[in-house]
Amino acid sequence: MGRPITAPFIRILATEENQTGNTFRTVYFNLTDRDCPLYQWPGIDAAKREIFLAGGGEIRSSTASAASKDGGLETFAVMDETHLYVTDELREMRDVVVANMWKRQRGAGTLYLETTTMFEPGEQSSAEDTFAEASALLEGRKKRGSHKLYFDHRWGDVPDLADEQALRQGLIDAYGDALAWMDLDALVDKVYDTRTKENRVRRYMLNGKTSAKDAWLKDHEWRACRTSNKEIKRGDTITLGFDGSRGTTSTDKVADATALVACRVEDGHIELLACWEQPTGPEGEDWQVPRDEVDAAVSHAMRDYNVVGMFADPPHWTDWLSTWNNEFGHLMQVKANQRRPLEWWTNRPTQMVLALEEFHGAVLERRLSYTSPDDRVGRKAELALTLQRHALNARNHPTRAGMQVRKDFPKSPKKIDSLIAAVLAWQCRLDAIAAGVLGGPADEWFMPKRLR
Fold this sequence. Notes:
Blueprint: E1 9-13, H1 17-32, E2 45-46, E3 50-52, E4 58-62, E5 76-80, H2 88-102, H3 105-108, E6 111-115, H4 126-138, H5 164-175, H6 184-191, H7 198-205, H8 219-223, E7 226-227, E8 237-243, E9 258-264, E10 269-276, H9 291-304, E11 306-312, H10 318-328, H11 349-364, E12 369-371, H12 378-393, E13 395-399, E14 402-406, H13 417-434
Parallel strand pairs: 1-4, 1-5, 5-6, 7-12, 8-11, 10-12
Antiparallel strand pairs: 2-3, 3-4, 8-9, 9-10, 13-14
Helix pairs in contact: 11-13, 12-13
């Protein structure tokens, strides 16, 4: 139940004076215009930069450095356009104000509100950090405890901007009630202006998550492969892809993830069956991959599905792969090689470049699909979100052999391992079709391939 706060202190933050004005001017207008109900509130002393409240309290706009905020007793803060908080000073300003509110958390129930345009990936803005925090909570990579975060992202999902009907609906979804004072036709005309860049349309007009300039897959390209009416079921004929890590070491405190992906041979639908990823925060220190759990997941997949092939990247898992080769190798209809049927080395540039090209082409032509995280609950939703995040984290890595993928930097916490596992599962599927696993002569099955 709401209750009065003694000496409330509301701070409105932004990167520059004009931006604080966007919010502060609205507050000022509501308190000083005779037609607004709040005008009747007694004891208000409103000035252009500061508003004093009856009984002791204030609303203040701020653009000064973080040092001037230290020691404040904020009870509520509004942080506008946090996608622009990209400098050390601006990020520190936000952190100091949040820390100030901890001092009055118990008595005043302090909280803050971030409002922002979608961020530019890779700029490490406060908005991007908040988005990452929400993703960690949604995917179960962070212990919730008493942490409370309300995250609301409205955007227009338009895979193909050339589809005007879909574009109009996407703009309606993105603008919501604000469309009442916008001109929808004018917005459409702006999108189709040849001088308007696609990335700006998706970010500023559709409020959609865009991709970094060197992203291997763009957000809308990957999302176009989502489906809500497909699910890999027990007994389906599938291939598996596996990419594993070893956890943290004494010299490397950031560990890669370990992922197991299934691909149904019949239609190319992929699902992340399991993923082990270093948790965020203190619980991630000295983290090790639970290898017994990984072994159990592989065994369960072999038991629950008709697995005709499994391609696994051997580094850090050669001992376990020896066991899996011994237990399951003779059952595989598709083999990486005769002596070690499950071992498929990603560090062989030529074959890896070809596998990536095949997968990338299948995404662009929508020949593969993946489970939509929006239509799942619980662990399945978390896994679908993880696969989506890993796929969009991949960056272009030109090599002499051709285009490969990598993280944005070597020790990055932005993992791509479930994408690599998906590429291996997809390549294993192509080999399975070529081997006639689906029945009939192999040449009766036509697999389109994009030509450059």
